[in-house]
Amino acid sequence: MGTGNQQRRRNNLKQSRRWQSTDASAALTNPKIAGIVDQISQLTLLETADLVASLKSRLNIPDMAFAAPAAASGAGAAAAPAAEAEPEEAAPAPAEKTMFTLKLESFDAAAKPKVIKEVKGLLGLSLVDSKKFVESAPKQMKEGVPKEDAEKIVAAMKALGAVVSMS
């Protein structure tokens, strides 16, 4: 009776290793895709940003606000012609800007740990990536941020000892 339980445990252990293994998922995908994924996963944050910018340029993908992809997904193909018409309509009547890009300009050296922690929370980066991000200031933090949120972020960062610009 005890040997049957041991056999089941061994089988369960083998299955859990197989399902938790990265090799199992790689075997299910195209080797060419797996190679690309491996290469991309080894890129730094800056290299990944360059890759995304290059892909957007080559594939003619427009920059979008963070909330826009969820709203645009229901619009489907009708959104593309509307996006092309917008620059013509927006040019004659300059309206008040509602979406902003935030850029970390500088920070007080004494406040560096607090700034790193805040950047970590805002951008969802790891602690190491947040530290690298802050140390590489001046650097763009976020794009397509609504005015109210941008003002709150700027105020919070200013209170911590960082200088953030809105453009």
UniProtKB/TrEMBL annotation:
Q: Which organism is it from?
A: Cladophialophora yegresii CBS 114405
Annotated region Disordered: the residues are 1-25
Family classification: Belongs to the bacterial ribosomal protein bL12 family.
Segments forming domain Large ribosomal subunit protein bL12 oligomerization: 32-82
**GO CC, one annotated term:** mitochondrial large ribosomal subunit
**Biological process, per Gene Ontology:** translation
- Chain intervals with Basic residues compositional bias: 7-17
Q: Which domain of life is it from?
A: Eukaryota
- SUPFAM superfamilies, per database record: ClpS-like (SSF54736), Ribosomal protein L7/12, oligomerisation (N-terminal) domain (SSF48300)
Q: Which residues form the Large ribosomal subunit protein bL12 C-terminal domain?
A: 100-166
Task: Enumerate the GO terms in the molecular function aspect.
Answer: mRNA binding; structural constituent of ribosome
- Keyword entries, A-Z: Ribonucleoprotein, Ribosomal protein
Matches recorded under InterPro entries:
Ribosomal_bL12 (IPR000206), Ribosomal_bL12_C (IPR013823), Ribosomal_bL12_C/ClpS-like (IPR014719), Ribosomal_bL12_oligo (IPR008932), Ribosomal_bL12_oligo_N_sf (IPR036235)
Recorded protein name is 50S ribosomal protein L7/L12
